[in-house]
TrEMBL record:
Keywords: Nucleus, tRNA processing. It is found in: Nucleus. This is Uncharacterized protein. It comes from Aspergillus hiratsukae. The keyword Nucleus applies. Residues 162-225 are annotated as: Disordered.
Length: 240
């Protein structure tokens, strides 16, 4: 049996309920998601250490980056611990070790990803989770608000208008023909056609789309941008 994707085990809040519906002639250009600058591995404990993962990020490369950041955190935590000093009692030395261990457990390295890259980030988290005697892992889900640019394709817009007008003209001609038949006025010797069959579902949808297309093109101008929410995962890894 194939393994279930890791992302399927997570729950995300659905926020894109009232997104602006765009006509077919509109193109959406996705902007890159802005990230905070990547901190130096040697920055202090107060600076968040983040590894951003994309769909193209090599798996082991991401793992090694997290390990490097954790090693630097370990060095910072143990730098102030001097067990060789004869000026301190054993109790003071043990207290130093305890403080260093506490500091180390608080300095987390975050693996972050959005959208389709979530699966890869979770794989990185699973790698550390499988080594639970060395690492502690926790996972948090959320959403990130992003901005898309909206561009109009003028040629596609013109074709959409022409197609909509053609369909609506056919509909008007059919309605007039039906009205004449309903009046019962037929020329001498002219046969009476059977009643018109009701429109099929596909034809009804086609006419509705045509009407909506004309309404959208004749209405307000499209906005230049729109916002939407994308799923985000944050995996915190610490040394035990």
């Amino acid at each position: 049996m194939a393994k279930q994707p890791l992302a399927k085990t997570l729950q995300f809040e659905k926020k894109n309920k009232d997104m602006l519906k765009l006509p077919k002639y509109a193109r959406v250009q996705k902007r890159p998601i802005p990230h905070a600058p990547v901190a130096s591995p040697y920055a202090g404990a107060q600076v968040p250490k983040i590894v951003y993962v994309s769909t193209k990020s090599p798996f082991m490369s991401a793992v090694k980056r997290v390990q490097k950041l954790l090693r630097q955190a370990e060095k910072r935590a143990t730098a102030a611990v001097d067990l060789s000093s004869s000026k301190r009692t054993d109790r003071q030395k043990l207290a130093q070790v305890a403080r260093g261990q506490e500091q180390l457990s608080k300095e987390e390295v975050f693996v972050k990803a959005t959208g389709r890259a979530i699966e890869r980030a979770l794989s990185v988290g699973r790698w550390f989770e499988e080594r639970g005697n060395e690492y502690a892992v926790r996972v948090k889900t959320g959403n990130v608000l992003v901005v898309d640019d909206i561009e109009e394709d003028e040629e596609a817009k013109r074709k959409a208008i022409e197609e909509a007008e053609r369909v609506l003209q056919q509909e008007q001609a059919q309605e007039k023909e039906d009205e004449v038949k309903d009046d019962g006025q037929t020329a001498p010797g002219q046969s009476v056609d059977p009643p018109a069959q009701p429109l099929s579902k596909s034809e009804t949808k086609k006419r509705k789309r045509a009407a909506n297309a004309l309404a959208s093109t004749s209405g307000e101008e499209l906005p230049e941008t729109r916002t939407r929410w994308v799923n985000m995962v944050e995996i915190a890894v610490t040394l035990k």
